[in-house]
Design brief:
This is Competence protein CoiA. This protein is an alpha+beta fold. It has ten helices and 15 strands. Bound molecules: zinc ion.
């Protein structure tokens, strides 16, 4: 027996769970239709003195011609009812269900939407089934909900199963003073349609909610006098970097990164079902990305200088470079794709860099000749004097 029916008179879905008061019993001139098979339904169990709850039965008393669809629709509706009741249990929150698609063909494709309200905030919550319908159906749904509830946040809680969660690798990110690993997904056509229409796609993963931002992967273009190869401590190519789009993934995002937040933080705060915490993380990722991009370019220059510097002529410079390399290495080990905010703070070591860079520049050319023209008097004067004092090993190196 279907738990819902399409009402051809009001062009709305009747859901037994919401009550049937005011509706005529019986066939009612063929007013009620099965959402699964399209057959006529009879409303039974209504009226005074009835001992049973109201229910629909197919005309003729037989079972549904599309039993699998009927089962799916009822099961998905049941999940939504349970979620609605969970939301209703949150103090100060009211929750009702609606089926805003006012066409019989679309009515069975998505379960009802939950309209939750807290203070003056309205949130439309979707909990669709295993398979999302065509993008057009989703777009129509988002627009219908928006038409009924202007300004409402329209949240789609998807499932972490293969049909709705296509893993696209991990992303190491840095925020809140430490490194985090975010999962990324390849958005489907349906998910992109929801976002494009103004809805929000979230994933429910146990007691966590995964909230997406756009990940735009790109490759840094090496500039002159930069070396991007074989950075110590880097397992991946440092040229591979990314940009974020937020708070919603942009349409051209290659994949979506996911900020995990506790479901409780979305429901037990005044910011009811508003993913503020996730948006703050995205803001931090956005703020740090310019520093990360420029840090890598700077480091590529330092690596180049380090590798193109002969050791002999400038020992202090080499050690300075090494310390900076170590620093970069430590940062790289901790956080490869999103160097911490203190990475821009790695700029202070740069002051010594300009002189070092200048002194190194001549060194890029073949090593200086044995008799530099600059200290004409000092060198010849010192040389015989050294030879008398230094041990023979050092003497050899001075030649
Ligand atoms: Zn049917």
């Amino acid at each position: 027996m279907p738990a819902t029916a399409w009402d051809t008179a009001t062009r709305r879905v009747i859901w037994l769970g919401e009550g049937v008061s005011g509706l005529p019993a019986g066939l009612a001139d063929g007013r009620y239709e099965c959402r699964a098979c399209g057959g006529k339904l009879i409303l039974k169990g209504v009226g005074p003195g009835k001992k049973v709850s109201p229910y629909f039965s197919h005309q003729g008393g037989g079972s549904c011609a599309a039993p699998a669809e009927e089962t799916r629709i009822d099961a998905e509706t049941e999940v939504v009812i349970q979620l609605r009741d969970t939301i209703r249990a949150i103090p100060g929150v009211t929750a009702t269900t609606e089926v805003p698609d006012e066409s019989p063909g679309a009515s069975g494709q998505l379960p009802p939407v939950i309209i939750a309200q807290c203070d003056h905030v309205t949130v439309a919550i979707e909990r669709p089934g295993m398979v999302l319908p065509e993008p057009e159906v989703l777009t129509r749904r988002v627009r219908a909900v928006r038409g009924r509830h202007p300004g409402a946040l329209h949240v789609w809680f998807l499932r972490r199963d293969p049909a709705q969660f296509g893993p696209a690798g991990e992303l190491e990110v840095f925020y809140g003073g430490k490194t985090h690993v975010h999962q990324t997904v390849a958005p489907t056509e349906q998910q992109e349609a929801i976002v494009a229409a103004g809805g929000h796609v979230f994933w429910l993963d146990g007691k966590q909610v995964l909230i997406p931002y756009g990940v735009h992967d790109f490759v840094h273009t090496p500039r002159p006098e930069q070396d991007w190869t074989n950075w110590p401590g880097w397992k991946r190519d440092p040229r591979q970097d990314w940009r974020i789009s937020k708070p919603q993934p942009a349409a051209d995002a290659g994949r979506w990164g996911l900020v995990p937040i506790a479901l409780a933080t979305m429901t037990h705060t005044r910011a009811f079902f508003r993913p503020q915490q996730a948006y703050q993380v995205m803001d931090e990722l956005y703020r740090s990305q310019a520093g990360r991009h420029s840090w890598r370019h700077r480091h590529a220059r330092e690596v180049y200088q380090q590798r193109n510097t002969p050791r002999e002529p400038a020992p202090p410079v080499v050690s300075a470079d090494t310390s900076r390399a170590d620093q970069g290495q430590a940062q790289a080990a901790g956080e490869r794709t999103a160097p911490p905010p203190r990475e821009p703070a790695a700029a202070p070591p740069t002051p010594p860099a300009p002189p070092a860079g200048e002194s190194l520049r001549p060194a890029l050319v073949p090593p200086p000749p044995a008799y530099p023209p600059r200290p004409p008097s000092a060198a010849p004067a010192r040389r015989p004097w050294w030879r008398r004092i230094l041990p023979s090993g050092r003497r050899r190196s001075s030649r």
